[in-house]
Amino acid sequence: MKSLYVKFVLSTIGIMVISGILAFLLSNAYYQQKLKPYNDQKNTTIALKIADYANEHPEIDLEEYLDNISGIGYQLLLVGNSGNDTFFGSTFNDPSLPETVREHVLNGKIYHGILQFPRKTFVTGFFANEVENSIGVPLTHDGNKYALFLRPDIKLLFNEMHYLFGWLLVLTILLSILFVIFGTKYLVKPISTLTKATKSLSKGQFNVEGIDLNRSDELGVLSRSFSQMTRKLEQMEDMRREFISNISHDIQSPLSNIKGYTGLLESESIKPEDKKEYIAIINGEINRLSSLTKQLLLLASLDRNEEMMKVQSFNVGKQLKELIRNYQWKVNERGIMIGYSLPDTEFKGDPALLLTVWENLLTNAIKYNKPNGSIDITMEKKEHTLSVLFEDTGIGMNSGETERIFDRFYRVDTARSRSIEGSGLGLSIVSTIVSLHGGQITVKSKERDGTAFIVELPLPPV
Ligand code: ADP
């Protein structure tokens, strides 16, 4: 497989060669169509002027005159009536000239050799140093008839230009190739870096280095998206590891308790009151495991998709009041005062999932409350949302803790919280259900003062 770099260099050089050939063909067509007739015309005028001067001045020495003309940049051939040839200026590569042409001009006609030059297809005909590639005009001097053939001495007139254009062409080609070779390396480098980074990412290494995130072009956008994706993958990998270790711990600790107490129950010398206590502890641990697996199953099904929602219209106020009634004994047991303002309100959502939300918020408000504390539950129908507020006078949290409470398995690590039973899954289930309903949950809390959770669910437009 050719690398992107080699492909790029080869295709650019290929494009340069093809463009060069096309440019040559097009400029050749331009020379043939436009410049060649013009060049022929220009040289015919010059030749005629030279001949006219010789005609009009029979007293001058023709050879000396033509020698002078050749000195200013022309190659000349003077054909006499008797067929003798005299050359002036630098020599022609091919001095031959068909007899018919000589006679044609001696008979007073003009010979357009530049225009009719046989190598028609290429502009290189312009440089052919041959007598055939010249302009022939009749010349009469001192009563004698001649044929004068003239072509510009390209070497004399354009030699420096030749070198200049030659160098220009060679340097342009060489420099272009050099720049393509080095420039392409620079262009392809970020792609190679990204490829390396992708490879190390696929091996599970997330600290990819060397990616230029500051570029403002498409590669910059790609690099930034890649780096975002890497961070997201790293977070997900961390979450996955944490999730597995949390689950393992939360399953392992009740299991080892159960194992310990069943071991004690096996002893024959066990007192009946101890036996009762151990069985109660085992039952408690089994309940803990069962509620943990229920929560995990619910989270897994919530993660899968929204289609599991069974949406229907129901009275949220009534649902919340019923829930409070069910928990009244627990509230009374802890000496907590509960107040509420829950008007009958119809809402379209999944009643079972929303009951899970309210139940989690209420049990948290009870669990993390102070003795003789209070709980206030208020529901309010606003223009576009249904807002439900759970406010307690409990242990509260600091801002660092409130930021993390919706993470799976997160539990505030204070002596007080640790003594309270929980899995750290409740609020992450709550926030997932609220999001599935298109709503949002926010928390305001002050350490040792209390906490307020506000659930806002969107109402359909009226
Ligand atoms: P848990 O099963 O531990 O209650 P949650 O996801 O419901 O799990 O809550 C996460 C953590 O947030 C809890 O461990 C607790 O520390 C804190 N928390 C939740 N609700 C409250 C509250 N009303 N007052 C104080 N802390 C709370």
List the helices and strands and how they pair.
Layout: H1 4-56, H2 62-71, E1 74-80, E2 85-88, H3 99-106, E3 111-112, H4 113-116, E4 135-141, E5 144-152, H5 154-202, H6 218-266, H7 272-304, E6 312-315, H8 316-333, E7 337-341, E8 346-349, H9 351-367, E9 374-381, E10 385-392, H10 399-404, H11 415-418, H12 426-436, E11 440-446, E12 450-458
Parallel strand pairs: 7-9
Antiparallel strand pairs: 1-2, 1-5, 3-4, 4-5, 6-8, 9-10, 10-12, 11-12
Helix pairs in contact: 1-5, 5-6, 6-7, 7-12, 8-9, 9-12
Bound molecules: adenosine-5'-diphosphate.
Characterization of this structure:
The chain has helices at 4-56, 62-71, 99-106, 113-116, 154-202, 218-266, 272-304, 316-333, 351-367, 399-404, 415-418, 426-436; strands spanning 74-80, 85-88, 111-112, 135-141, 144-152, 312-315, 337-341, 346-349, 374-381, 385-392, 440-446, 450-458. It is an alpha+beta fold. It folds into 3 domains: 4-160, 2-Layer Sandwich (Beta-Lactamase), CATH 3.30.450; 239-302, Signal transduction histidine kinase, dimerisation/phosphotransfer (DHp) domain (Helix Hairpins, Orthogonal Bundle); 309-458, Histidine kinase-like ATPase, C-terminal domain (Heat Shock Protein 90, 2-Layer Sandwich), CATH 3.30.565.10. The strands form 3 sheets. The protein has a 5-stranded antiparallel beta sheet, sandwiched between helices. Strand 9 (374-381) and strand 10 (385-392) form a beta hairpin. It is rod-shaped and about 155 Å long. The model has no long low-confidence stretch (mean pLDDT 89). Adenosine-5'-diphosphate binds at residues 360, 364-365, 368, 392, 394-397, 405, 410-412, 417, 422-428, 451.
